């Protein structure tokens, strides 16, 4: 299969939102469906409005991103990724740029997407969340997957020293 065809079936959510500041929320969301997927504008806007409503952002369609909170911007980024009807979502540290109280809001959205059957690859430092929702966990060290398995096995009986060190540091940080 051609790489560009695969990419068209993926949605990407970046840790820094990557919303276009000069476009409204609605314009940010319909850009890819209209330009890259050749979806008629009316159809793309209708889908975008349904998604905005689902994620509690219907009243923000005409706003620019800088008028939104960090949690709202991240929800818009998730809506934008879903607007093309992807088969899978790639989520890169979607909570790292958020205030602690907004982290739970975004993680709840990811949890809901999983419940809906969305396939996701999630890079995160939110280990308790990964343990709760992941079907499989991969531990990366120096950019390579050094261990993979079920959340239970990785978090309760890691095989690799790098994984054990990382988890030990997390436990020590929580105690502080």
TrEMBL record:
It is an enzyme of class 3 (hydrolase). One of its GO terms (molecular function) is ATP binding. Keywords: ATP-binding, Cell membrane, Hydrolase, Membrane, Nucleotide-binding, Transport. SUPFAM superfamilies: P-loop containing nucleoside triphosphate hydrolases. Its EC number is 3.6.3.-. It is a peripheral membrane protein. The keyword Zinc-finger does not apply. InterPro entries: ABC_transporter-like_ATP-bd (IPR003439), ABC_transporter-like_CS (IPR017871), MetN_ABC_transporter-like (IPR050086), P-loop_NTPase (IPR027417). GO terms for cellular component: plasma membrane. Its main location: membrane. It is found in: Cell membrane. Residues 1-167 form the ABC transporter domain. Belongs to the ABC transporter superfamily. This is L-cystine import ATP-binding protein TcyC. It comes from Capillimicrobium parvum. The lineage of its organism: Bacteria, Bacillati, Actinomycetota, Thermoleophilia, Solirubrobacterales.
